[in-house]
Amino acid sequence: MPKPKLSEFDRYMEHVCEALGHADRCAGFADYGRALMLPIERKSVEPLAAHTDPYHVSAKHQSVHHLVAKSAWSDEGVIARVEQWVQPVLRLEDDSYWIVDDTGFPKKGKHSVGVSHQYCGQLGKQANCQVAVSLSLASRHGSLPIAWRLYLPEAWAKDAERRKRAGVPEEVRFATKPQIALEQIRAAKAASVPVGVVLADAAYGNDSGFRDGVSALGLTYCVGVQSSTSVWPQGEGPLPPKTGQRRGRKAQRLRRDTDHQPVSLKELALSLPAQAWRSVTWREGTNRPLRSRFAARRVRIAHRDYLRNTPHEEQWLLIEWPKGDAEPLKYWLASVSADTALNDLVYTAKMRWRIERDYQELKQEFGLTHYEGRGWRGFHHHATLCIVAYGFLMAHRLKHGGNKKNFAGSEAPALPDDYTPRGSRTSSASRAGLDRDATRSHRAPNRRPSRALPVLRRAESHTELVTQ
Questions:
Q1: Strands 97-106 and 197-200, how do they pair?
Q2: Which domain holds residue 67?
Q3: How far from the centroid of its chain's Cα atoms is residue 297's Cα?
Q4: What pTM value is reported for the model?
Q5: Tens-place pLDDT, residues 32-59
Q6: Are residues 295 and 370 in the same domain?
Q7: Are residues 176 and 218 in the same domain?
Q8: Looking at the domain assignment, is residue 414 inside a domain?
Q9: Are 355 and 142 in contact (CB under 8 A)?
Q10: Which residues have C-beta within 8 Å of that of residue 5, sequence separation ≥ 6?
């Protein structure tokens, strides 16, 4: 009998599931990935189970929960298979970027793994949240997260009891976000991912260890930095080591003196003549072309060069100063080629917007923030499955004209009329011989009834599997 023809999604899942280790995980894995693409409001484990198998929700919930929270498959292995599938349609021969960033997940309580009072980008302030660091592979055509790891605050990393309850692996130790990102970059280089310019915002670019680590790997970068960063303008640099000493070891370190000091990026920007600034358009926005004023200069970083024997290498300083603003808005350091044109510098620096779109779609359309478990494994497995779903849609869009609304997949099964979410007060079915009204009347008079969870929106019987 001939083998039935597989759909594009089934072929994709067959490819990805080779990293799972056990064939019996594949069906549940594919169901979870398919459900993440359905137009349903909540994408935590129970709603996904309900829409996958609406007449056996309890059993499906148990199997899906085990797959996500307990099963020991490799997140790195699965994401590598996704990257292999998506890479050809990104057309990295046109241009290639490795984009570093982190994203926050607001959380109440203190038991979810890694939760702490820290800066949450989603809220734009300090808040109780989890933070994950990621690395995306990008081109002008699209992007895909290829590494993902929870940032474990130092208090968590040193708390043996909380680590044990959350299932944090023994080998995971405290690392700063730039250190985590550098580990991800090293792993991508070791895995022979097509090399790209490393892009990051000032939270990473300000870290000289991060920049030096990227350079040590033979990679170039274009990273945001703060206006207070000190540099030597082109043609200037630290003083050479002292000469003519009669005693002791010969001086080897570079010097500064009172009259010979580096300047801050802001000082340098404010000193540039009017003709140094040019208006550059880097891409088409939703409503209009994105355009601003920029200037670029060759500089040497001055960070602790008085401890070095030789000056830092020259690199590009890119400055954005929108017309009408009182002072410059953003600064980047770029170790790309010295003959790079200003337009290309601007385009490269601004390419970091793709990771922001990654996060927006992963959160809004694929339920990245909806996982309700507390453990390390579940947090990473759910994120990996979201990336699996996102990777399929990304590849499908690029193969079929870039339209994200032209994918017709499985229909969302309609939920039974009597379905209510787990935890709802009405979800306990009446049993023969029991009077529900009588039971309700025996409650303590001052006890407040538990508040019902919102009922999931019922999917229409012919809803296509699309994103909005």
A1: parallel
A2: 8-201+357-399
A3: 31
A4: 0.84
A5: 999 999 888 889 888 888 888 888 888 8
A6: no
A7: no
A8: no
A9: no
A10: none
